Structures are given as structure tokens and as C-alpha cells.
Amino acid sequence: MEQSNAVPGGLAIKKREDSDRVIALCGNPNVGKSTIFNALTNLHQHTGNWPGKTVANAQGYCRHKERGYLLVDLPGCYSLQAHSAEEEAARDFLLSGSPDCTVAVCDATCLERNMNLVLQVLELTPNLIVCVNLLDEAKRKGVRVDLAKLSELLGTPVVGASARDGKGLSELMDEVEKLCHEPKPPRELPETDPEMRVHQAQWISEAAVSLEPQNRSISRDRKLDRILTSPLTGFPIMLLLLLGIFWLTITGANYPSALLSEGLFWLGDRIRDRFIYLGSPEWLTGLVCDGMYRTLSWVVAVMLPPMAIFFPLFTLLEDFGYLPRVAFNLDRCFKSCGACGKQALTTCMGFGCNAAGVVGCRIIDSPRERLIAMLTNNFVPCNGRLPMLISLITMFFVGAAGGLGASVLSSAMLVGLIALGLLMTLAVSKFLSATLLKGVPSSFTLELPPYRRPQLGKVIVRSIFDRTLFVLGRAASVAAPAGLIIWLLANIHAGGDTLLAHCAGFLDPFARVFGLDGVILLAFILGLPANEIVIPLIIMAYLSQGSLVELSDLTALRSLLIDNGWTWVTALCVMVFSLMHWPCSTTCLTIKKESGSWKWTAAAVAIPTVCGLILCFLIANACRLLGIG
Ligand SMILES: Nc1nc2c(ncn2[C@@H]2O[C@H](COP(=O)(O)OP(=O)(O)OP(=O)(O)O)[C@@H](O)[C@H]2O)c(=O)[nH]1
Ligand SMILES: [Mg+2]
């Protein structure tokens, strides 16, 4: 049986059975709540080494000793006096009284700061378990926590854990079971005044924590911070790291991409033979094999390898704790444009997926700055657009010949494009904060988390299965129907010409003003559900118009594009337009949901599109005037 009841905090609790117990996981940001939640529920909440990843309550189911538990992962908060939307979500859920038991997750390396929240929750409910997490890190830093003493002082069960290695979780669930099935009677605790609580927290943690004198890892963190966040070295290192990531992505993806497309096309031919053998009518063979299957193969071959390399590399940096340092470096730039430095974090999330970046904007407290961050998130290319940019750079600017020089040049061009996107983000943020969204930038404190050694194997597996295959699945589910539409457009005749020719012809004069053509613009329009399918659609459309060539590699693709009138100027305009045009439909719907307004959603569509069109117009016409391209 499934039972559902809405509770404050924006979450409808869905129990499988009446006897299921509800467990809330609360705690300061970045202490490992979602890691514990994922380990117990086998779900995939976003984890990473920076505060503020979880922005809304999430729930998952787990069984322990034949009993069912519903776990609720709450956004991190420092206190129950909610200052931001996600703190409010956490507080409302705890105050609603629906959890049977609350687990307060603490960071063993800085217990004192965590104690404040623990004491506040304790005033709210006696059914509390304190989970002291990150014990492995504490050990490395010479911090020792006396768990028994802590339990005695707090009067609640205390469990130690290293959640990332799965240690202590079974003990935690044992305590949860005990507490859920023998709940403590409510006790009347007077509400402590905040200053008293601070002293109490200090006193408790001093009594329970002992420090070994030498502490090399803290001084190592400081040294590293001095290099990574200094005004002199911070920016060049950021650019070099980005260059390195793209270089690895481009060089690493080349060979598997070619292999995949060869394999998939070979399979396509076999499927076609089978269709013919079974006597399928020509239109059906064309529809399935040339329309749906081909588009799908292109999406898989072009997207899978770069994504399978880019995502793990990016996640490694995220888990290492580099992203907040990027935010720190870019803070001054964003602030001088009237926006919030935390926007750097949401911009980074946009690299994975713009919709995720938009949801992540909840970490920005001021509504004005949050809106600016949402409206400009699309200026960073998401993973659906990166492979397209990479293949165009390879085909038109570097040559598919390969070699170290070529791949470094490709990466440098990509970094240049991303720098352009970032510049546009800043320029548009400045424009918005001077016009429609006037205001003074608010100050914020962004905690720089300790550097953590990422778990290489786990990161690779997690980013391939959780992220790459998810994004690919979404793209593929759109690619097949889009392939079908383009095939139908290319094969249904009206008035002596195909529908595709009519549509492309209609758009052509307008598109040419901006250095594009009708087919390209049509592909961008049909690519609204997912950017990944734009290039496959362009290929399909050109192929259906002319002779059918076997497109086994980028050289063949380049000839196809050149045969259809492309020059490097066209490629440049397509790249710029890909960087700056309307967000995909998922991102648009997310912006509507987050901003609650169709007006701002329309602005989020119009702003990048207008910027892209202006830039393309300038590029195309400057080249035309100068007689180049
Ligand atoms: N060394 C170590 N790292 C851990 C442990 N538990 C979690 N982490 C890492 O700590 C970071 C933060 O973990 P999350 O689970 O995302 O933290 P959270 O409390 O959900 O964070 P927010 O949602 O931002 O409040 C991640 O990089 C984890 O891999 C642990 O026991 N040991
Ligand atoms: Mg979390």
C-alpha cells in the first residue's frame, strides 16, 4: 500500500506500508547527508565537495532488519532560523513533526560548529541520533572524537561513520531501529537563548574532541588555497585546468567515436537488409533505417565518448573541492556586474546540464540575483552542445588529421568559446542589474571546503552510469522521433517539392542574414527538446536532399557540409549560435517552475537568442565585407 500525505517543506511523504518509519537526515552543508542517504537507499542524489548541492527535500526507501524506513534527505542548514529557501525547506520538514526519528549528521573535523544545529534540533525532538561522519578525514587531521562522551553529554545516541566507505551505516540503522520502535517520551526543554547555545556547543565539543598537535593537512590545504585562489595564479590555473579537461576529452573521444559510428552503421546496414528480406515496404525501411536509426546512431556515436570522458573529469574536480575555489576567483567579476559570486557555481553546473544549473540557482538567496543567474545560465554550453562544438572545431578549424598540436589547438578554441560564453554571462548580468533587475549585489559567505581525495573508481562508475547514460538516454529518446519527423519532412512531397525543402526554403533568406542556412535553422528549431540532435538533424536533412553518401568519419561529414555550401564562417556562426540560442525545452520548463513566471521564461529564451543572432550577424557580415570565408 502506498500512503501519501503532504507536509510542509514541499514534500509529499510516500510510505510503502503503514508501519514504515520516517527518518529525516539533517545537518550543516557538505557533511555527507546525501552520501549517507545514497548508501542506504541506493539512490543517486547529487553529492560533491561544496556546500549547497541539495536544494530540496528528497526521499528514498530502505530496509533494515525486515523493517521499512523512509529516508528524507534535507538541504544543509546551519541553524533552524531559516535564512534561505532551502533552509526553510529543512526547517519546515523538521517542525512539521512528521519524522519518527531525526538523524543529525555532523562533520567530525569541526564538531563545534555542527553542535549548534544539533542543540536546536534537540530542543525540537528527543528522538534524535547524532551521526558523527567524516571520521576518516578527522583521523587524518589528528582530530579525535570521544563518541561515548558526546552521547553522555547530549543524552542521545551517537554513532561514528565514514559514509563514503560505507562504515558505520549499519550501526546507524541499528540505533534508528531502536529509537523508532521505542521512542523517547517528549520532554519539556526550555528554548535556550542563542548566545547560551553557542557556549553550550563550545563546551560540549571541547569536552568530546581532542586534537593532536601536528596538523599537516590543514597547512597543506592553506598552501594549496594560496595558489589556487590568488589573484595572480588563480585565473591561469583555472584556464589551464579547463584546457586540460577539453584536451583529454577531445583526444580521448576521437578513436572510440570513429569506432562506434563504424559499428553502428554496420549494424544499421544489417537491419536494413533484414527489413528488405522481410519484404518491408520502401517507406517503412526508409522511416526506420534512414530516419530513426541513423539519427540515433549519430547521437550515440558523437555524444557518448566525449561525455564519458568529460563527466568523470569534471566530477573529479568537483569532489576534490575545486568548484568553490572557482566561485571565489570569479566572485569579484560577478559582483562588479551586480550579480552574486555563487553564480559561478551554478554556471559550472550548467556545463553538465543547464536545467540542473537553473535548479542549483536556489543556493542564491537574493531573488534578484537568483533570477539573473537563471536567465544567463544558458550561456555555458551543456553537455549536449559540447560534442557539437568539438566536432565543428575539428572539421573546420583544426583538420581531422590529429596530432598533439591539432588537439591542443582544438581545446584552446573551445576554451575561447567558453570564455566568450562567460563574458556574455557577465555582460548580460551587468545589463540586467542596471535595467530590469536593479539592485546592489548582496554579500555572502561561501565556505571553502577542505580538499578531499576523490575516489577515482567510484567517480568514474558514478558519472558514467548516473550522468552519462542518463543524459544519453534523454537525448536518444528525442533523437528517434526527431529523426522520424525529419525523414517524413524529407519524403512527403507537396507542390513538386518536399516539405523539408519548403520549410528550409522559407527560413533560408532570414537564416542567411546571420551566416546560417534554412536547414541549420530548422535543425535548431527541431532541436528544441534536446540540443544533442541538432547536428544529426542537419546531416539527415542534407543527406535526404542530395546523394546518399556513407558517413563513416568526420572527413566525409566535412565534405557533405562543404557540398551544401558551408565555409569556416558558416561553422563559426553555427558554433556561436549553438552557444547562444534558446535553452532546450527541459531548461525552459525548469526556468518556468523556478521563477514561477512565463514572462521571465520568455526573457530566458529571448536574451541568448538575440545575443546569438547579433553576434552571428556581425561575424557573417564582417567576413562578407572583408571578402573572407
Ligand atoms: N573522506 C570522506 N568524505 C566524505 C564522507 N562522507 C561524504 N564525503 C564527501 O563529502 C562531500 C559532501 O558530501 P554530500 O553527501 O554531498 O554532503 P551533503 O551534506 O549532502 O551536502 P549538501 O547537500 O551540500 O548540504 C562529498 O564529496 C562526499 O564524497 C566520509 O565519510 N569521508
Ligand atoms: Mg546533500
TrEMBL record:
<dbReference type="InterPro" id="IPR030389">
    <property type="entry name" value="G_FEOB_dom"/>
</dbReference>
<keyword id="KW-1133">Transmembrane helix</keyword>
<dbReference type="GO" id="GO:0015093">
    <property type="term" value="F:ferrous iron transmembrane transporter activity"/>
</dbReference>
<dbReference type="GO" id="GO:0005886">
    <property type="term" value="C:plasma membrane"/>
</dbReference>
<dbReference type="Pfam" id="PF07664">
    <property type="entry name" value="FeoB_C"/>
</dbReference>
<feature type="transmembrane region" description="Helical">
    <location>
        <begin position="386"/>
        <end position="406"/>
    </location>
</feature>
<dbReference type="Pfam" id="PF02421">
    <property type="entry name" value="FeoB_N"/>
</dbReference>
<feature type="transmembrane region" description="Helical">
    <location>
        <begin position="227"/>
        <end position="250"/>
    </location>
</feature>
<feature type="transmembrane region" description="Helical">
    <location>
        <begin position="602"/>
        <end position="623"/>
    </location>
</feature>
<dbReference type="Pfam" id="PF07670">
    <property type="entry name" value="Gate"/>
</dbReference>
<feature type="transmembrane region" description="Helical">
    <location>
        <begin position="468"/>
        <end position="490"/>
    </location>
</feature>
<feature type="transmembrane region" description="Helical">
    <location>
        <begin position="412"/>
        <end position="432"/>
    </location>
</feature>
<protein>
    <submittedName>
        <fullName>Ferrous iron transporter B</fullName>
    </submittedName>
</protein>
<dbReference type="InterPro" id="IPR050860">
    <property type="entry name" value="FeoB_GTPase"/>
</dbReference>
<dbReference type="InterPro" id="IPR011640">
    <property type="entry name" value="Fe2_transport_prot_B_C"/>
</dbReference>
<dbReference type="InterPro" id="IPR011642">
    <property type="entry name" value="Gate_dom"/>
</dbReference>
<dbReference type="GO" id="GO:0005525">
    <property type="term" value="F:GTP binding"/>
</dbReference>
<feature type="transmembrane region" description="Helical">
    <location>
        <begin position="519"/>
        <end position="544"/>
    </location>
</feature>
<keyword id="KW-0812">Transmembrane</keyword>
<feature type="domain" description="FeoB-type G">
    <location>
        <begin position="20"/>
        <end position="182"/>
    </location>
</feature>
<feature type="transmembrane region" description="Helical">
    <location>
        <begin position="565"/>
        <end position="582"/>
    </location>
</feature>
<dbReference type="InterPro" id="IPR027417">
    <property type="entry name" value="P-loop_NTPase"/>
</dbReference>
<keyword id="KW-0472">Membrane</keyword>
<feature type="transmembrane region" description="Helical">
    <location>
        <begin position="296"/>
        <end position="317"/>
    </location>
</feature>
